[in-house]
């Protein structure tokens, strides 16, 4: 018989899930978006919340309602070979090359760099990255304790510290919301720009990784059946939606208000540092250092845990302990590339992976209504992957001048929403209808209510 979680346990799981999600990008991207959106911040914020809050929630929910054991099993609904490639790309992106290194780099850039001379910053970053990921690895060694480490300890501390800074921003605002200059890229479609900005948090991708961590935690508390687990995931997800929406909105509007005193910054980390220094001086810089480091540390713990569990599942010869060492050492090395460089390299990859993750999540949820149809998964994935590749090439500044790429983009620009970075939307819908027709006409097509 399933245990029914108490309200306190639901809140702690919600706190853990929020803590896993809310790391580097979650702090810096909303602030930067607010500065760019200016007086159009309302629409931009709605778009941002849809991808940065709504999609991650749906991702975790999809893992819960389908009862799968991980990303690989979910992606195998398309094809096992595809599942291997997609799972590898996802975990390499969020746990090794982009999201994980960005955690240490963001912590250093915002929290430590202001106290280090420019001549010594490269060496200081290397030392900080080593210390940061050593601590993250120590906290992630036992995956069974992640609820305590993140949900009951690190995340509450983070929320208290961040709230103390945001309260000052709104009690004594530096500027106003109306009439603030809108940057060119937000003038035409602030909603879609905000929607795309939500990609940069990596949370829709992370949801597929963190989903199984949350489900495992719920099962450890005595909830076993798929239906009961899905209900507990939903309840915990509501906690996350509320927390993340409130904090994202506050950070976004803080970005707009900061323009009353400061100019547009290169990234949100700089803007946050300027705000903390303005309101509190040196104590503010120290406070922000703790805010950012704790935010990034708890997400690093989650990424190491998720990567290690997935690796152990896919490659039984590699133990959780060995995988966790790899998940800590490599990001510590790649962190030394620098924050702005990591962001610029990550964008094209995200433009490719995000649509694949989103359609996989939505198909998993749709499956609960129409049943499992392999043809639908296959056709949607084919159409999405091709057109998402066009979006990725369009976002790759270094490749846009290559003649072959220019030829592809000259054709791709005719796709609806391509100029907004979402040329995959209409083709994915076409793939859905083709898949449904194929499933209906195929003599071997099967519909399975799983």
Automatic annotation (TrEMBL):
<keyword id="KW-1133">Transmembrane helix</keyword>
<dbReference type="InterPro" id="IPR004685">
    <property type="entry name" value="Brnchd-chn_aa_trnsp_Livcs"/>
</dbReference>
<feature type="transmembrane region" description="Helical">
    <location>
        <begin position="325"/>
        <end position="346"/>
    </location>
</feature>
<keyword id="KW-0472">Membrane</keyword>
<dbReference type="GO" id="GO:0015818">
    <property type="term" value="P:isoleucine transport"/>
</dbReference>
<feature type="transmembrane region" description="Helical">
    <location>
        <begin position="417"/>
        <end position="439"/>
    </location>
</feature>
<feature type="transmembrane region" description="Helical">
    <location>
        <begin position="123"/>
        <end position="141"/>
    </location>
</feature>
<keyword id="KW-0812">Transmembrane</keyword>
<feature type="transmembrane region" description="Helical">
    <location>
        <begin position="377"/>
        <end position="397"/>
    </location>
</feature>
<feature type="transmembrane region" description="Helical">
    <location>
        <begin position="153"/>
        <end position="177"/>
    </location>
</feature>
<feature type="transmembrane region" description="Helical">
    <location>
        <begin position="197"/>
        <end position="218"/>
    </location>
</feature>
<dbReference type="GO" id="GO:0015188">
    <property type="term" value="F:L-isoleucine transmembrane transporter activity"/>
</dbReference>
<dbReference type="GO" id="GO:0015190">
    <property type="term" value="F:L-leucine transmembrane transporter activity"/>
</dbReference>
<comment type="similarity">
    <text>Belongs to the branched chain amino acid transporter family.</text>
</comment>
<protein>
    <recommendedName>
        <fullName>Branched-chain amino acid transport system carrier protein</fullName>
    </recommendedName>
</protein>
<dbReference type="Pfam" id="PF05525">
    <property type="entry name" value="Branch_AA_trans"/>
</dbReference>
<feature type="transmembrane region" description="Helical">
    <location>
        <begin position="12"/>
        <end position="31"/>
    </location>
</feature>
<keyword id="KW-0813">Transport</keyword>
<dbReference type="GO" id="GO:0015820">
    <property type="term" value="P:L-leucine transport"/>
</dbReference>
<comment type="function">
    <text>Component of the transport system for branched-chain amino acids.</text>
</comment>
<keyword id="KW-0029">Amino-acid transport</keyword>
<feature type="transmembrane region" description="Helical">
    <location>
        <begin position="352"/>
        <end position="370"/>
    </location>
</feature>
<feature type="transmembrane region" description="Helical">
    <location>
        <begin position="238"/>
        <end position="259"/>
    </location>
</feature>
<keyword id="KW-1003">Cell membrane</keyword>
<dbReference type="GO" id="GO:0005886">
    <property type="term" value="C:plasma membrane"/>
</dbReference>
<feature type="transmembrane region" description="Helical">
    <location>
        <begin position="43"/>
        <end position="70"/>
    </location>
</feature>
<feature type="transmembrane region" description="Helical">
    <location>
        <begin position="279"/>
        <end position="304"/>
    </location>
</feature>
<feature type="transmembrane region" description="Helical">
    <location>
        <begin position="82"/>
        <end position="103"/>
    </location>
</feature>
<dbReference type="GO" id="GO:0005304">
    <property type="term" value="F:L-valine transmembrane transporter activity"/>
</dbReference>
């Amino acid at each position: 018989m399933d245990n029914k979680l108490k309200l306190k346990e639901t809140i702690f799981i919600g706190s853990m899930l929020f803590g896993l999600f809310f790391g580097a990008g979650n702090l810096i991207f909303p602030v930067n978006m607010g500065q760019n959106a200016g007086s159009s911040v309302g629409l931009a914020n709605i778009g941002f919340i849809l991808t940065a809050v709504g999609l991650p929630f749906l991702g975790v929910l999809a893992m819960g309602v389908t009862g799968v054991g991980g990303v690989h099993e979910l992606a195998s609904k398309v094809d096992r070979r595809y599942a291997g490639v997609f799972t590898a790309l996802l975990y390499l992106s969020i746990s090794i090359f982009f999201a994980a290194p960005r955690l240490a780099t963001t912590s250093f850039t915002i929290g430590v760099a202001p106290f280090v001379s420019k001549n010594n910053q490269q060496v200081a970053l290397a030392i900080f990255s080593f210390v940061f990921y050593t601590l993250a690895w120590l906290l992630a060694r036992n995956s069974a304790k992640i609820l305590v480490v993140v949900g009951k300890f690190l995340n509450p501390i983070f929320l208290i510290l961040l709230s103390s800074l945001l309260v000052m921003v709104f009690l004594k605002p530096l500027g106003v919301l109306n009439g603030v200059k809108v940057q060119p890229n937000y003038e035409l479609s602030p909603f879609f720009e905000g929607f795309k900005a939500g990609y940069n948090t990596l949370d829709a991708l992370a949801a597929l990784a963190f989903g199984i961590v949350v489900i495992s935690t719920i099962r450890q508390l005595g909830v076993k059946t798929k239906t009961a687990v899905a209900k507990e995931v939903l309840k915990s997800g509501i906690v996350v939606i509320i927390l993340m929406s409130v904090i994202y909105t506050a950070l976004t509007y803080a970005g707009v208000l900061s323009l009353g005193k400061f100019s547009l910054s290169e990234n949100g980390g700089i803007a946050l540092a300027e705000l903390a220094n303005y309101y509190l001086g040196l104590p503010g810089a120290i406070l922000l250092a703790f805010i950012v480091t704790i935010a990034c540390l708890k997400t690093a713990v989650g990424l190491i845990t998720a990567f290690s569990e997935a690796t152990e599942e896919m490659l039984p010869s590699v133990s959780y302990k060995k995988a966790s060492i790899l998940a800590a050492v490599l990001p510590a090395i790649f962190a030394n590339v620098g924050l702005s460089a990591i962001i610029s390299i990550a964008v094209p990859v995200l433009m490719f992976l995000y649509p694949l993750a989103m359609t996989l999540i939505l198909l998993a949820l749709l499956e609960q209504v129409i049943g499992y149809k392999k043809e639908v998964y296959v056709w949607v994935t084919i159409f999405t992957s091709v057109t998402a590749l066009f979006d990725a090439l369009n976002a790759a500044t270094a490749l846009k001048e290559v003649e072959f790429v220019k030829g592809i983009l000259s054709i791709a620009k005719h796709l609806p929403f391509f100029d907004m970075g979402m040329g995959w939307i209409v083709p994915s819908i076409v793939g859905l209808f083709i898949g449904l027709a194929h499933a209906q006409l195929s003599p071997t097509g099967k519909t399975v209510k799983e």
